[in-house]
Specification:
This protein is α+β, with helices and mostly antiparallel strands. The protein has one domain (about 50-265): Trypsin-like serine proteases (Thrombin, subunit H, Beta Barrel). Helices cover about 15% and strands about 35% of the residues. It contains five helices and 17 strands. The protein has helices at about 10-20, 25-30, 85, 190-195, 260-265, and strands spanning about 5, 40-45, 45-50, 55-60, 65-75, 80, 95-100, 110-120, 130-135, 145, 160-165, 180-190, 205-210, 215-220, 225-230, 230-240, 250-255. The strands form three sheets. A six-stranded antiparallel beta barrel has the order 4-5-6-9-8-7. Strand 4 and strand 5 (about 65-75) form a beta hairpin. The chain starts with a strand and ends with a helix.
């Protein structure tokens, strides 16, 4: 079982407080700003991408339409995202936008959220279990993305090229992207990621990025997908700075939470 929102309203305030008081690693990756608790989004070093190529890519907004995180459509009425994104808003104040490449357009679907499931072990991103499942108010007519399972260890091999997607900032401190963007990053070995981050947990996390930096997903791209082999293998979670040399992005390792995710998806 996991935590459900909005029943546990204190989680929202706790998550915001954690992000504001956390260490430099976490605060720089996913800063929360009250009262909305929304994170600043960005993908650095990417290119504009077509929603037709990635119809499962969705973004989360507040009730007044401010985009603050990403997500992945894994069933017509289920979205996988980061727990720190889902904890930022109660269900009645959260919207999911799908089928829309341009944030200023009106195509696609803008739907409500009926239920939020947070992994029961989640406390803050740097401690793992940064995964949530949203149940939408209606089923969506878009192609979904399969999630990695415990049998998909081969997808996590060092050097594997993976795709990240988001609508966020295109440079450190720069403007947010109006359009969906994508980038390709190689998976990093657990040893290398452990050297970069002392609190890296290889069971719960996976890292991706170039040694020289320059391409990364961080901050409000949080919750968005890391994809390879036609599967969701990671969820944008945390990092230090953005696209810095020797500091890859850290993602929730989806295969480690496959049973919990699939149980919630099938509910």
């Amino acid at each position: 079982m996991g935590t459900r929102l909005p029943a546990l309203r204190t989680v929202i305030a706790t998550a915001a407080a954690l992000m504001l008081s956390a260490s430099g690693q976490i605060a720089s990756a996913i800063p929360y700003e009250p009262p909305s608790g929304a994170a600043e989004p960005r993908i650095v070093g990417g290119k504009q991408s077509s929603i037709n190529e990635h119809p499962y890519a969705v973004y989360l907004t507040t009730a007044d339409g401010m985009q603050f995180c990403g997500g992945t459509l894994v069933e017509p009425d289920k979205v996988v995202t980061a727990a720190h994104c889902a904890a930022a808003q109660p269900a009645e104040d959260l919207r999911v936008v799908a089928g829309r490449e341009d944030k200023q357009a009106t195509d696609g679907h803008d739907v409500g959220v009926e239920d939020i499931w947070l992994h029961p072990e989640f406390e803050k991103p740097s401690e793992g279990a940064d995964v949530a499942v949203l149940t939408l108010s209606e089923a969506l007519p878009y192609r979904t993305l399969a999630t990695a399972t415990e049998q998909d260890s081969r997808l996590y091999a060092e050097g594997t090229q993976a795709t990240i997607l988001g609508w966020g900032r295109m440079s450190e401190g720069g403007d947010q992207s109006r359009y969906l963007r994508s980038a390709t990053v190689p998976l990093v070995s657990d040893e290398e990621c452990g050297r970069a981050f002392g609190n890296y947990d290889p069971r719960a996390m996976v890292c991706a990025g170039y040694p020289e930096g320059g391409t990364d997903a961080c901050q409000g791209d949080s919750g968005g997908p890391l994809i390879t082999g036609g599967r969701l293998i990671g969820i944008v979670s945390w990092g230090e700075g953005c696209a810095l040399p020797g500091k890859p992005g850290v993602y929730t390792r989806v295969s480690n939470y496959a049973r919990d995710i699939n149980a919630e998806i099938g509910r």
